[in-house]
Design brief:
Helix content is about 40%, strand content about 10%. It has 16 helices and 14 strands. The structure holds ligand F0G.
Length: about 450
């Protein structure tokens, strides 16, 4: 009798470890001193003093052996390097766009695009602009409008595609503002600022139809296109049997271009690109690129960065990898929900978001619950997340202070870096925090910069 093979339920990391980077343990006393020295701002800690670093999933991933081998074989020619042509072929194969303009990271692609399309009479419509996207539109004098569906703003409402654009609001905004004042419609997949929530293919298709009916191009902010493709496969009817690559190709087929930070689903430590179908706009963007990024066949990257991305874009689309990645976040989410810790539901692609206002109701908004929770997380367990709340968004252009709509701690997972035992440890730390949550104190501001204050702010416990 042959042995019967059951369907194994444990989803394992689909890699083994060949090159090690140690992480360092600190004592609670050391962390208390280090955090005080850093002005109670985790951005100002030295990374070696952080045990598990969930500050961002951007540029923090592990490279594969295949990426390293491509990097060793890179062509560092200033113009026309083979590495560029390998990179360009990968981007064209996956996205189908005609022009591929490399940039040193995502915000450089945004800058080049908006400098050529936005001025103070213009508005860009998006499900939710990421902060650099918004800042680059506003730096040109334009307006950035967020039109995500209502469910996307409600932390505990369950919806399979909370990143979807509100189609009625989109059409109403186009009619109100007038197509002549809208250089493009954008859609961010997954919707990072809204909790790493996916956008459905049906929604992208509908957004594309509306935009095109008014003669407007659709540009995808594609940072996490592979994770979005996996959610479409899991949750949208008709996609279960398609590969993530097929799904990604369909997604891009509805758009006229994309901006990309390859530090996310490009699986690279640095890099990005702008891809466009419009010949004239691509020409103008290349002209500006030469001024700010470099020659159009390297765009601020080394040849080995181009190689890492050419391989990484396909690795991000591997089903085994995506299954492990999305499941790791969901696994942590299931544990926290069982502990009664309020999180943004359902868990998204690259990160888990804790609703600090709901977890720490004794800390008033003016004493920054999410900032305080993130600091407590470091003090208790050496873990660093990031506040996405009233310190990041609360300061108004006129200098006044408003509470952010959501006060969240984001735990973003670097790609292919941490294993299940790291996640189990993290859950244990969070449970200990939940049990002692009433002891967590608020914070007040000691010093702040005029803009983007969260990076350098100095705080103290109340
Ligand atoms: N768009 C989205 C949706 C992003 O999440 C980011 C970066 C960018 C654009 C800009 O790309 O950093 O390469 O210039 N997000 C990082 C984060 C920083 O932590 O979420 P970049």
């Amino acid at each position: 009798m042959p042995l019967e093979t059951p369907t194994f339920k444990t989803i394992i990391e689909p890699f083994r470890i060949k090159s090690l980077e140690p992480i360092y343990f600190t004592t609670p006393e050391q962390r208390a001193a280090l955090l005080a020295e850093a002005g109670y701002n985790p951005f100002l800690l030295r990374a070696e003093h952080v045990l598990i670093d969930l500050l961002t999933d951007s540029g923090t991933g592990a490279l594969s052996a295949k990426q390293w081998s491509g990097m060793i074989a890179s062509d560092e020619s200033y113009a026309g390097a083979q590495s560029f042509y390998r990179f360009e072929a990968a981007v064209k194969d996956i996205t189908g766009f005609k022009h591929v303009i490399p940039t040193h990271q995502g915000r450089a692609a945004e800058h080049i695009l908006f400098a050529n399309t936005v001025d103070k009479t213009k508005a860009v419509l998006n499900n939710t602009h990421f902060d650099t996207t918004r800042a680059n539109i506003e730096a040109q004098g334009g307006q950035a409008l967020d039109l995500v569906i209502a469910e996307g703003r409600q932390p505990r409402t369950i919806h399979p595609f909370k990143g979807n654009m509100d189609l009625e609001a989109l059409e109403a905004a186009i009619q109100r503002i007038g197509p002549a004042n809208i250089p493009m419609v954008m859609i961010t997949v997954t919707n990072n600022s809204g909790g790493g929530q996916p956008v459905s293919m049906a929604n992208v298709r509908a957004v594309s139809q509306i935009a095109h009916r008014y003669g407007l191009p659709l540009i995808i902010d594609a940072c996490r296109f592979a994770e979005n493709s996996w959610f479409v496969k899991l949750r949208e009817e008709g996609y279960a049997d398609k590969t993530p690559l097929e799904i990604a190709r369909e997604l891009f087929s509805y758009a006229d271009g994309c901006t990309m930070s390859a530090k996310k689903d490009g699986m690279s430590n640095i890099g990005g690109f702008l891809a466009l179908n419009d010949d004239g706009l691509a020409q103008r963007c290349r002209n500006l690129e030469i001024l700010t990024e470099g020659f159009p066949t390297y765009g601020g990257m080394a040849g080995y960065d181009l190689e890492a991305i050419a391989v990484g874009l396909y690795e991000a689309l591997q089903a085994d990898y995506l299954r492990y990645r999305i499941r790791s976040i969901e696994y942590l989410g299931d544990k926290l929900t069982a502990f009664g810790i309020p999180i943004v539901q359902p868990t998204g692609g690259h990160a888990l978001y804790i609703d600090a206002r709901a977890m720490l109701p004794h800390i008033p908004d003016a004493q920054y619950p999410a900032w305080s929770l993130n600091n407590a997380l470091y003090l208790l367990g050496g873990v660093r997340g990031v506040e996405i709340g009233s310190i990041m968004f609360g300061k108004q252009p006129d200098g006044s202070e408003n509470s952010a709509p959501l006060d969240l701690v984001r735990l973003a997972f670097p790609r292919r870096v941490y294993t299940q035992s790291h996640v189990d440890y993290l859950a244990e730390v969070l449970l200990a925090l939940q049990q002692q949550r009433e002891q967590i104190r608020g914070h007040r501001i000691v010093w702040q910069a005029p803009v983007l204050r969260h990076f350098t702010i100095r705080m103290e416990p109340v």
